[in-house]
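Take a sample.
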Amino acid sequence: MERTISFGSDANIGVFSRVFDDIAVVPPTATEEFREALSNLLDVEVLVTTIQGSEIVGSLLAGNSRGLVVSGLAGENELSLLQEYREVLLLERGMNAAGNIILANDAITCVHPDLPASVAARVEEMLGNPVTRISFAGIKTVGMAAVASGRGIMVHPRTTAQELAVLEGQTDLPIGTGSVNMGSGLVGTGLLANSNGYLAGNMTSGYELGRIEDIFGFLER
């Protein structure tokens, strides 16, 4: 099956969607083709909802198998759906675009370096990992500058050696640099990955797909 797709005509599929090993969360504007691709390639149950009435679900939602972190402006019905699958933490003030400022899987939790200490402590408690304040290539919105799954972590191609060293000190998972959508280093905007598979924006080149498969260990498939 094709490993690339667009959201409507937009290659930035990670802005609109968030995936975990068991579920994917997409807005109602997601086409049936998009939902089926997630279900088939990533082996997930697809949940359909907006976050704070917006379709940019990937920018407003983060988490792992233990919990979800979501914008504090999320509505009651939106939260009710998410709470069927995880405990949910609301970011109620200041930086609340959780998907932009948090990179998480079951092994690591990285956050925007300027996230207040009190909020970082709540995120740490919810997701069950020590919080690491970090940037990638100097980009503080770590959730858009990287993608983390149970198989590996892909970061912006200009991530520094120092930034990589910090990340490598947090996990034994494979870590590598790469890009999506013909050279975009904001890999979180154009790549969805979990332990079962991946789906990239439709502008992603064959070379970039090969790099994704190498980092996340899908070359044998």
Observations:
- The mean pLDDT is 96.
- The longest helix spans residues 32-42.
- The radius of gyration is 16 Å.
- DSSP finds ten helices and 15 strands in the chain.
